[in-house]
Amino acid sequence: MLLALAAADSPAMAADASNLPAPAWCPASGPSPGMANAALFQRIAEKAARREAITLVAIGSSSTEGSDLSDPTLAYPTHLERHLNALLGSKVVTVLNKGKGGEGVPETVARFKRDVVALKPDLVVWQLGANDIVRRTDPEVTARSVEDGMLQLATSGTPVVMMDTQTAPSVAISPVLDQTQKLLKAAAKRHQALFWSRFELMRGILASRAASSDDLIRPDQLHMTVPMHVCTGKVLAEAIATELRQLSTTLASANH
């Protein structure tokens, strides 16, 4: 299995990142995301139904940028774009990768005006929490930065998907893990963002014994393997597409 993971992170495989299949252990769907602001997501559902161009910004740290990988295109945003287009039935979705390795929540929020708001995306996927947890940042400090970021996005009218931390040994030993996870979920609920838990997805895979930690996490005990990036993009795409399909069904019913 480790040889397979090494091959998936090779330059030759990186050149064909857009066609990497999801690993056999990747589930068809993940944990049910929280409720989102229907009015904001409705605009995306309408655009998808009309086959109009949809722009997503993926922002966060190395899990988004892919700075720890041999090629950044191996990171989950590439696979999110591919699977979303396949699920929506046309190539209308473009995912802009605005990740920056090593950032905590305050550093990412400081870039929102330039890397999110100015781009006027239809949707933002905000991957956050991992570095703050590993560094044992005071959860109250993290909470203030998350609130600042969510208020900026709310002012711009941009719907948000919040993606939490990965399951990794370096994350698991942090004393602020539980409290940080709770504050992220609370912020998502308060601001009606779609909360998509990468942590629960990975924990579920491990609990099923379909894969080992070595299949999901690289030897540094923190970053995701390429197969886990592919799985993340695929399952997140399914969650977003499901939300859009449900809204489209509701809209169709309301118009009859």
SSE diagram, text form:
Blueprint lengths: L1 H7 L2 H4 L23 H12 L4 E7 L1 H4 L10 H13 L4 E7 L5 H5 L2 H4 L7 E5 L2 H5 L4 H18 L3 E4 L5 H4 L4 H14 L3 E3 L1 H10 L5 H4 L9 H29 L2
Parallel strand pairs: 1-2, 1-3, 3-4, 4-5
Molecular structure report:
This protein is α/β, with parallel strands linked by helices. It has one domain (30-249): Rossmann fold, CATH 3.40.50. The protein has 14 helices and 5 strands. Helix 3 crosses helix 14 and helix 9 runs parallel beside helix 11 (177-190). It starts with a helix and ends with a helix. The relative contact order is 0.20. Mean pLDDT is 90; it is low at 1-8 and 10-15.
Q: Report strand %.
A: 5-15%
**Average pLDDT figure:** 90
Multimeric status of the protein: single chain
Assign a percent range to the helix content. Answer: 40-55%
Question: How many domains make up the 3D coordinates?
Answer: 1
Per CATH, the superfamily is SGNH hydrolase
Q: Class by helix and strand content?
A: alpha/beta
What distance separates the N and C termini?
53 Å
Rg calc: 17 Å
Q: Give the beta-strand count.
A: 5
Shape descriptor reads globular
- Poorly predicted runs are 1-8, 10-15
